Amino acid sequence: QPPPPQQSTGSSFFSSLSNAVKQTAASAGLVDASAAVSAAGGRKFKLLLVIDEPHTDWAKAFRGKKVHGEYDIKVEQAEFSEINLIAHADGNYAVDIQIIRNGAKVVRSFRPDFVLVRQHSYSMAENEDFRNLIIGMQYAGVPSVNSLESIYNFCDKPWVFAQLVSVYKTLGPEKFPLIEQTFYPNHKEMVG
């Protein structure tokens, strides 16, 4: 039997993603009578903030997709470096983006219904630490397709490996092989 065409992999991915979005929206109580209504045509929609580099057009990927078969998905896309967030303890929050598209500066402020993070939120490079935005989204309780806790945990590679070591100890090397590593708390211990 021939392998399925490449398109089915993409549609399978979007089907899984669509299901994750539906579950996130439902668990967050996003699907209710107070849904946002667009000015054009009076259609209901949910606003998805996608944090990613511009190489993927997420608005195109979600075009025609719906949450619970009822709510259109409107996409705002920006990189971490283009985002600012203000969050209050009562759950109110606002996201501001300043992006340059086709040479023009675009500034928008909105309240996303949920977020999809596709860009790394932390690197040791200068000006590449966006953990504060992940913390702000968690603080505000912004629903996320991929858990904000897992995104924050992935900021620290030794922390992630420690979680893998825990799984390794539970399942054993036959079921969960793991490359051997050694953790040093600082360079002095490694050299000594």
From TrEMBL:
Gene: Syn2_0
Species per Swiss-Prot/TrEMBL record: Falcunculus frontatus (Eastern shriketit)
Domain Synapsin ATP-binding positions: 146-191
Subcellular location: Synapse
Source organism, top-level taxon: Eukaryota
Protein name as catalogued: SYN2 protein
SUPFAM superfamilies for the chain: Glutathione synthetase ATP-binding domain-like, PreATP-grasp domain
Main localisation: other
Residues of the Synapsin pre-ATP-grasp domain: 43-144
GO (cellular component) term, any one: synaptic vesicle membrane
Signal peptide: none
Family indicated by similarity: Belongs to the synapsin family.
A Pfam family this chain is assigned to: Synapsin_C
Keyword terms, alphabetized: Phosphoprotein, Synapse
GO biological process, one term: neurotransmitter secretion
